[in-house]
Amino acid sequence: MLEIKNLAKVFGERVIFKEMDLTINDGEVLSIVGPSGIGKTTFLRILAGLLPADQGELILDNESLDITGNRQGAQVGVIFQDFNLFPHYTVKQNVALAPQLVKKVAKKEAEKEAEELLKNLGLVEQMNQYPFQLSGGQKQRVAIARALAMKPGILAYDEPTSGLDAESTKRVIKVIQQLKTQGVTQLIVTHDLPFAQAVADQTFDFGVDVDRGGSL
Ligand SMILES: Nc1ncnc2c1ncn2[C@@H]1O[C@H](COP(=O)(O)OP(=O)(O)OP(=O)(O)O)[C@@H](O)[C@H]1O
Questions:
Q1: Could you tell me the CATH number of the domain that includes residue 15?
Q2: 36 C-alpha to center of ligand 1: Å?
Q3: Could you give the ipTM of this predicted complex?
Q4: Average pLDDT over every residue of 49-68
Q5: 41: Cβ below 6 Å to ligand 1?
Q6: Whose CA is nearest to atom 24 of ligand 1?
Q7: Is residue 212 part of a domain?
Q8: Could you read off the pLDDT of 88-108 as tens digits, one per residue?
Q9: Residue 216 lies in a domain
């Protein structure tokens, strides 16, 4: 379960959001919508531990997450829009690398787990290919497998349907639903309202549900 309490972010004098409260239960899918420039990516970067918040708490499975932008560990898995796959590693290596480096998992075991994840995401034939050989949708599923390999408490996506055709979007919906049945908690930042409606149990509208302006 992820609990967000009284979270606030300020850039200079400008309050991007404040008093943000939200709870996502285990296995739930939350979509975050709202107009461009409202603060969705900023929130995602804070959740990922890449950007400091100015106030508030993030509590994941009863443990407080660092909000100063110096977080250790991979409690939150994020699939960014450009996927950031390592170009010189194969698909399997991309997925198996972080558990070996960060969690000190043995290579054989990390690769076995990577194979299992890739199989579940329909990427058996791509395991030994390189990112440049993949379609956008395939790259995205590799990025999902790579995030899942670290066994995060929550998986977050930034605009997962942008640049995908209708068929690939359907596939993403299937993957999200499949992970949901496995109990994975997911948070999705999206502009795509039909997609949000198709996958989400709960929708958070940054344009409506968040306070801004004034000061902290
Ligand atoms: N490092 C920064 N310094 C100052 N202002 C920033 C910084 N990063 C973002 N902003 C501002 O904060 C606001 C929120 O930006 P953010 O990228 O989070 O919006 P968004 O809702 O994700 O938009 P989009 O959907 O277009 O990606 C914007 O007005 C942006 O200009």
A1: 3.40.50.300
A2: 8
A3: 0.94
A4: 94
A5: yes
A6: 36
A7: no
A8: 999 999 999 999 999 999 999
A9: no
15 lines ligand 1 (CB under 6 A): no
From the CA of 45, give the closest atom in ligand 1.
18
Question: Of 193, 197, 152, which Cα lies nearest the Cα of 61?
Answer: 152
Pocket test for ligand 1, best of 7, 9, 11, 47 (most atoms within 8 A of CB): 11
**Is residue 158 in some structural domain?**
yes
pLDDT score at 189: 94
Looking up tokens 């209708």 gives 166
Tell the residue number behind the tokens 């997962």, with chain if given.
160
User: In this predicted structure, what is the pLDDT of residue 71?
Assistant: 86
pLDDT > 80? residue 29:
yes
- Say if 213 falls within a structural domain: no
For residue 41, report the distance from its CA to the centre of ligand 1, in Å. 7
Helix 136-148, helix 91-103: angle, nearest 10? 20
Tens digit of each residue's pLDDT (9 = 90 or more) over 103-132: 999 999 999 999 999 999 999 999 999 999
Number of domains, the chain: 1
Range of the domain at 147: 2-205
pLDDT tens digits, one per residue of 131-172: 999 999 999 999 999 999 999 999 999 999 988 889 889 988
